[in-house]
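User: Let's play a game. I give you a shape written as tokens, and you guess the letters that built it. Ready? Here's round one.
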């Protein structure tokens, strides 16, 4: 495999090796790819959770389990009220 790097990335890798934390450029690249793989998995999980939350909300809406507000002030008042309940240990809901 042949990889071309920008001068900035080449210098970054050289700095990592010079720091003594990595013994070679290959180690830096392997660690970078491992972190990229972790990041991709985390992103995949977040998207999966978001899809579940969206489905849950749509299902609740289909069942008529929704709140109706006529103004932003009304929405904010409701949010503050619910927040105060949660802070006081009442009405705690699993997020």
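Assistant: Ready! My guess for every position:
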């Amino acid at each position: 495999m042949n990889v071309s790097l920008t001068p900035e990335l080449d210098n970054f890798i050289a700095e990592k090796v010079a720091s003594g934390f990595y013994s070679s450029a290959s180690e830096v690249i392997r660690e970078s790819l491992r972190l990229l793989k972790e990041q991709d998995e985390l992103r995949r999980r977040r998207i999966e959770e978001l899809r579940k939350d969206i489905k849950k909300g749509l299902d609740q809406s289909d069942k008529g389990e929704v709140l109706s507000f006529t103004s932003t002030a009304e929405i904010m008042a409701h949010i503050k009220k619910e927040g105060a309940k949660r802070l006081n240990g009442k009405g705690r809901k699993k997020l």
